[in-house]
């Protein structure tokens, strides 16, 4: 058998089912590996006793005859999910040591399926960022090149999966926070349709955009996690009222008219011309085009489509998301929990100091932007206008889906950049979100799959977007690609 | 109608906003209990505390209260309404925003009609919207510190807003009383003003007749009808004084001090908050379909004016009496039980409006706390009706019943010796005995001396030991002697 850390979710499930290993054994192995790779900076919290207790419970369930694809499988949660048994910080000083009295629904769902919690994973503060450099607890390094960022905000999740520290991890995606780090680290990440995963217990950044999803080493593994994570939750009013879905079983079903050689025959893949601008980095463009050629080889038809408001998605997103964030983050006032300034003159001073000390620069910037765009006299010009454009962006996708089944393109304009490279210019970071923002604004499911290598051997991700609740189609297409290629199986040197 | 009383040459313009605490078991966006009086912070769950990751879920019972109200005032119940966030920082506002409704409220328009000054008044409503209450900041008894109690945080409120339709403090108080009685009648509010279940804000301005509206000042948080009226009266005089001194009213929020009877400015328009309202992305638009409205309508209690009309039709009561009997649901229910059990609706109405009300007022009680039951009252009324009790005797019995509400009525009457001899046979027998013994009086009467009859009546009264009705006796005597 391969070393335990090399096993993905499905392989591990098989090994556990065949009693080739135990959950306790895998958990101990991965905890040791996490400790050995501490310099990557992925962990914000861990508790060996808690993890082993989960593992022992999973082994006991198996001994009683229970089975399940996640029973005994260790994974970790982005620290944006609150957990009873480990602190939940959202990458912020504001919530240092915060102990939640309840588990996020996604966390509880995975626990119910038997998953073992290895720890809490580093992320940009309150999920705001695309390089994981906004965490109050230090950056995460990209396992492919430790001088580069892993992407963000789910940077800890992506790096942990890429470095084979765990078979899978949870993440959250507001404007690309699952897809972009997946792309930067050569792993798979799916952001489902808004409403598929409950937001209860996920520390809110921008409520109308936040969506949980898995990061894993293959489309199949993503599907196994998504089946367990998702489902209607009465505690989240924006949760989709749909029957539970077995994404894994559904994605394996063959397409009508498909053949072994051409599993994607008849699939119409739309390439928005706005996703392939002249300025797109040559290495990214080359890798994506090569992958698209593979799609053709697998039977898919490529066609030219347009998402004319792609560029506008940047200002639209950077109005709506900060507006919601400015309000969502008002609860961090130092009154009931979280950071409270040691010295203060009066109430206003307590608010001012607690929040000034507790929040990092990017969070403050977005609170200020959001406060501004919601202010009297600016609301119509900014927030309302952005909402109108948001609807038009969603309509543009619907026009595309009249002629194609999935949309494909790059996840990000470049491969992972160097740590510290763009820290001084927030707008440059914002611009790099251009290809992931449109699907977020429309609430559509999007996925990033490893599709090639670019500059310095860094991974390049391909983004797939489908219509509402068509996660299965995304997973099916990704799986077909992964049956024919091995980009998803590549491991960073040294891991 | 001449309904514009001027004060020192000024017309008073009043609009009222009322926060009605809805009588739901749990909070508007969480499952925590709304019961009053628990230990501080024992009824605040993770959602009420705004812990990270928590989300609001709308309580449908609160929506049904709003629909009930909307139907009762003939308003438009919006098929789609929007919850919005009102952003401001305050220690007893855990999320840093209040979830309310802003541009699109659940109840739109409508009107409230009530009796006032021998007529009917109609106040137009602008809207009624759902929102959550904040917690409480406790400044006393914590030595320079402020304590926070979040039990009230998230309690459902319906804020009911009128047009600037009222023209005097007494009219405003009459409106508030009528609204209070309606929401209690509808069962959507317990009406407890001491506990803050019904709080009014009054927007007050003055103007010369025919002039445009003056600048208004808003008096906040009035929790009694008396204070509402006093506060408006003070505010009106204050505003007129200022104007007559050549000053200009500044838009402001003011507080009423019940001890001094004065209003005092809390904040002016300049330091008004920018609440940065925007639609709450955690809550989808509230959709209320016709089926839901129909279901609520089917469960509505009979409304006061409909009940009043029915009382007039069914029991032959005057409009005034019927309106008075339907002042509260409990009062009306008491009446109906008494009327039906005794089969004497008019008698029941008279006694309720008379003796019963007088007693209740004397003891500052309402009908709910009245220990004399409607069926007991009915038993007594039945004895009046069948002639067993004279009206005078009935008053004595009523007093005794008031003191001992559970006494059996007939045995009480007998033990008090007040049963009226009215059975005609018995009376006829006594009359015949008396006539047989008083031939002299008979002769005098037949000779035209009417006074002789009085002597005979006296004899019969004596023989019946005072329990016969003199009028009835003289009737019988005349018939015998005719």
**Averaged pLDDT of chain B, please?**
91
Tell me the β content of chain B.
15-25%
The strand line-up of the biggest sheet of chain A is: 4-6-5-10-11-9-7-8
In total, the number of strands of chain A is 11
The number of helical runs of chain A is 16
Quaternary: heterodimer
* Overall shape of chain B: elongated
Total count of helical runs of at least 4 residues of chain B: 15
Kindly name the structural category of chain A: alpha/beta
Mean pLDDT of chain A: 97
Give the radius of gyration of chain A: 21 Å
Strand content of chain A: 5-15%
Largest interface: A-B, 43 and 29 residues
CATH architecture label name of the domain at 4-257 and 472-489 in chain A: Alpha-Beta Complex
Q: Could you tell me the CATH topology label of the domain at 4-257 and 472-489 in chain A.
A: Amidase signature (AS) enzymes
The CATH class of the domain at 4-257 and 472-489 in chain A: Alpha Beta
| Helix coverage percent of chain B | 25-40%
State the CATH superfamily name of the domain at 4-257 and 472-489 in chain A.
Answer: Amidase signature (AS) domain
Write down the Rg of chain B. 31 Å
Distance between the termini of chain A: 17 Å
